[in-house]
Design a protein that fits this description.
By secondary structure, the chain is of the alpha+beta class. The chain has one domain (7-94). Helix content is 37%, strand content 25%. The chain has 4 helices and 5 strands; from the N terminus they run E-H-H-E-E-H-H-E-E. Strands 1-5-4-3-2 form a 5-stranded mixed beta sheet. Strand 4 and strand 5 form a beta hairpin. The longest helix is centred in the middle third of the chain and has 11 residues, at 56-66. The termini are far apart.
């Protein structure tokens, strides 16, 4: 059984690995959220790639972009992070612990 997400429909800059597609589905993260994190998120270098997440400033920018009603609908998903390597989303998850900036 193969599951493939068409990222061009959502305007994602990079593509998704099969692992990332599977994690998005398993964790119930809408592709719209992945797009917002990629577009507005704060980038932190990690070994071999970068982690992208939404800090308070990014959330404020999203609020201004989408409006109050839409923001209220997506707010519960904004604790999402992406791991990106060479422009490809490797995995996606929910932030459970504080992100350390070195």
């Amino acid at each position: 059984m193969s599951f493939q997400i068409n990222t061009t429909d959502y305007g994602l800059v990079g593509s998704l690995t099969k692992h990332a597609s599977k994690r998005i589905q398993q964790r119930g993260i809408p592709l719209e959220i992945v797009q917002l994190v990629e577009e507005f998120g704060q980038r932190v270098c990690q070994s071999g790639g970068e982690q992208i997440y939404l800090d308070q400033g990014a959330r404020s920018n999203i609020y201004k972009e989408v409006g109050r009603k839409k923001y209220a609908q997506i707010e519960k998903h904004l604790n999402t992070y992406l791991i990106v390597c060479n422009g490809v989303v490797v995995t996606v998850g929910h932030i459970c612990k504080r992100i350390r900036k070195y």
